[in-house]
Amino acid sequence: MKVKCPSCKRLCFRTTDQFNPDVRPNRAMIEMLDPWATWGWDKHDGFMSSDLACPLCEAPLAPSGRLVVVPDDYQIVKVKTPEQINQEKIDAEWDEEEPCKETEPLPEQTQEPLSKADQIREYLKTDMSKAEIARKVGCSSTYVGNVAKKVEHA
């Protein structure tokens, strides 16, 4: 079985034939996995459980006096943050959508937006009151009146 670090959750050791879960662990009960063993990291000769440490994070492997062991076929599951989950959902939605089709721009998109004065001039051609035009355009009735006077004089 593999030994899991209780701090960083990495698997750097495996148990030997001498491993007994009912006995306080010692160095003879575990051996380092590759590639760390081939790199020469397995030089520790600690015999006590307090001497057993993770080679990657230096945390004790048996802080409570027991090793955390997992089966040899144990698969590491990566925990995703909420941001990663949301990004995957967004990516999936974009993948499902049809590609955008090039269309001709609508006539409204080709023209520049009308100024408030131009909008008022257009509405003055209808039978709307100055107060209604002011609400529709988002300006004061006085401004609508001033534009109407300029239209009359023009």
Helix content: 25-40%
Number of helices: 5
Biggest β-sheet, characterized? Answer: 4 strands, antiparallel
Side by side, the strands of the main sheet go 3-2-1-4
Overall average residue pLDDT: 78
N/C terminus separation: 94 Å
Number of strands: 4
Determine the strand fraction and express it as a percent band. Answer: 5-15%
Radius of gyration: 38 Å
- Order of secondary-structure elements: EEEEHHHHH
Low-confidence runs (pLDDT<50, min 5 residues)? none
Class of secondary structure makeup: alpha+beta
Shape: rod-shaped
Q: What is the number of independent domains?
A: 2
Describe, in plain words, how this protein is organized in 3D.
The structure is a single chain. The protein folds into 2 domains: 1-76, no CATH class; 112-153. The termini are far apart. The chain has 154 residues and is an alpha+beta fold. The chain is built from 5 helices and 4 strands. The radius of gyration is 38 Å and the shape is rod-shaped. Helix 3 (116-124) runs antiparallel to helix 4 (130-137) and helix 4 crosses helix 5. The mean pLDDT is 78.
